[in-house]
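The instructor's notes for this session suggest beginning with a concrete chain rather than abstract definitions. Hand out the sequence below and ask the class to guess, before any prediction is shown, which regions might be ordered.
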Amino acid sequence: MPVAPLHLVILDPGLHTHAGHHVSIVKDLGRAASASKYLLSVYSRKDIDKELQENLTSSISKIVPHFSCDLYQFYHNEEGDRQAYLLNLALEYKNAIRQQVNNVASDGFEKANNTVFLLHTVMDLQARALNLALEALDREGIRPKCLVLMMFHPQRSKWRSDALNKLDYSLAFKPLHHRSNVTLYASDAEIAACMAAYLRISALPIHPAVVINSRTRQGEKDRPRQVLLYLGDAKRDKGFDQLPGMIESGLLGKYPTTEFVIQYTLTSEDPVLHDAVKRLNAAKADYDNLEVIEGFVDDSEIYSMIQSSQLMLLNYSQEEYQHKNSGVLWLAGYFNTSVIIPDNCWLYREAQRLNLDHHVVTENGWLVALQKALNTTETSHPLKSTETKYKLHILQPFDRWLFQVINAGM
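After discussion, reveal the predicted structure:
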């Protein structure tokens, strides 16, 4: 019986709207799989946006609306039945893996095939659910190869003590770590160090940033006077609600030769964010040097906006980003675009690890920090930074790295 071709299967209960890294990962890996003649299938949320589903179907082998569980149900708080969620998600993981394995067998290939399951954005509950699913599949003689990416720091939960987080994450990931068919990766240096301590191992490998892919290209052209004030999902913890006040202060009028750009998607019902959008749209009529781009944009456009900017404002919440990482900062690091960031949080520490030129907000506030940065940032070539071992690893193309890992047998 022949061996099946390499088939990457993404199990993602967080994929359902045109927002965030869940969509970009599928698109990036879809392009890479097609170019390498691999197969890519995705199991998404059952309530995936129909337009998004049709859009993704054009670039991948198959998309299956499957998960009823919401990946982020317990991300912001503890409200709800965690045990019921755990059991339901375990069942959905098990059924998805079994279905995929049986499909391979029904196509005339042997079960010991080249199918690899990718689970990214895995937190403690998802890890526990996956282990339950794998235990059940063990009894059926099914041992799938799984790549598990830990994108969130265990200590990011403000409503839970560090001791409880340590207990939950240790119990959740230790069984997976001991499985020969599961490989764990951390998304940054701090997650790797924390989880290595929890698991009592010397080190945990780090995967490259998922926002960097084979299509990402650096250039050496001069940069115009352009400032990227916002990029991505409109959120309060990313400072979107503060943007209208900065613009209404008259800042843009002081720098008439500088182009200010805002790109956002809005999926929240938060009235504060909707009010911010109204104020931004009204401000467009007052300033010729303000561009507001609403809606999802392709990654090539994102790369162009960052590479064409001399400066990026990341007025993120210091508290929320104490342990939370940011794909936008990694892209800034890749293109050597200067950033304005809060002090004493992951953004500041990662900028130092990347040797990225950065300006830190002080007690005088974001508006003052932005003006100071505008007055001091150079406008010519991107600043050169020392290429540290960490920077070279984490800012390499994720898609290329992933298929190399899979081809090497994980």
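Then share the key points. The chain has a mean pLDDT of 90. The chain has two domains: 7-212+396-407, 226-389.
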